[in-house]
Amino acid sequence: MVLALTEHDQKMLDGDEGPLVQEAMRFLVQLGETFEAKQMIDLEYAYVYIDGMGSSWGAGELSQDVLSDAIDSGLQVKIPTTTWVSGREMDESLYPKLGITGDILDELELESQIGKKLGMIHIDTCSPYIVSDFQYGAHIASIESSAVTFLNSFKGVKTNRDGISAFYGALTGRYPEFGMHIPENRRGTHLFKINHKMRNSADYSALGYLIGQLTGLDVPVLDGLPRMSLEEMQCFSAAIAVGGAVSMAHIVGVTPEAPTLEAAFQGQEPKQCFEINTVDIEAIYDEYCSQADTVDFICLGCPHASIHDIRKYAELFKGKKVADGVTVWLMTACQNLYLAKTGGELDILKEAGVSLQNNCPMVNPGNPGPNHTFHNPDFTVGNFATNSMKLLYYSQNCIRPTKNFFGSTERCVNAAISGRWE
Q: 187-286 has which fold?
């Protein structure tokens, strides 16, 4: 199958706009041909990571010279583009404690400057939807699996699970039409009847992880859930994207493309039908939670906490203290750090001993973080607790816990104060 290109596409492919745009089009054309796309489409928005541009992106066609020359020539992204450099907006007082050295800070600054010079907007969060709006039906290119699932499912945006293709889409404004960009690929495949009364965000995280395991790469349809808060949508989207590799889910009466069961399946019959009961949700807690013990590290805000979440944490920690020997991180977007500062929640959390920061231990450039863990075979973060199945899943290799604890927000806060998971 031949991928149809416009005259402008061909000019970019021929190098009329420079080597970097040419390499971007080469990659996108190869991507489209691999997935048998018929044509290229216009993108409206891109969300990209810049982590590693200053070091990893130094080989092959995307060399440092090509990147530098493109920036020097004044090249700009062609569509609105946001990005995150993890650790860039952290509390500077944390740098020594986390082992973030001058060399690392120089790298972060380099990556930050690359984004700025290319015309990107730094939102510095894994949850772009909490600081930027999206139009229903928009074709975009996005990294971050939880954001992809959230945007496809709850915003009706059309995006695949992108990597460097999101960066290349930003440079060209174009993308091959395949995957979630095609309406029939968004059709539901598996039906899940939910017979469990959802109690909290952790339940949605457990449910998402279970559905992901049962669905794999397909599109699940869930029937029987009530309206969901932003925070519940976040937890569900993050977990379903790591339980399987789900890019989209329909929740009947909740998500925009599933007002009814018939609409979710586009008039087709489901491949398989499942019933999810309370015992199935409890089994996830049992499987991924160790027996009662002391806690060392508690991490909350995965995906990044909304300002409403931060206020709830402040209410739970108000007048209390984190137990000696326990480290508590609460992660959020830098914009929400500002809101928490002006609203007083930041002071309450600091007084309690909670570190509110724009970061994530799964990508933290210091310690704890994957780079430190990979280079120190005996390292462990100790006994680890969270209310996020996504964070629990990735923590096994990135920060290497001794024991895992997974439960509700309230249970995590109680463990932070008492020093024990009960």
A: Rossmann fold (3.40.50)
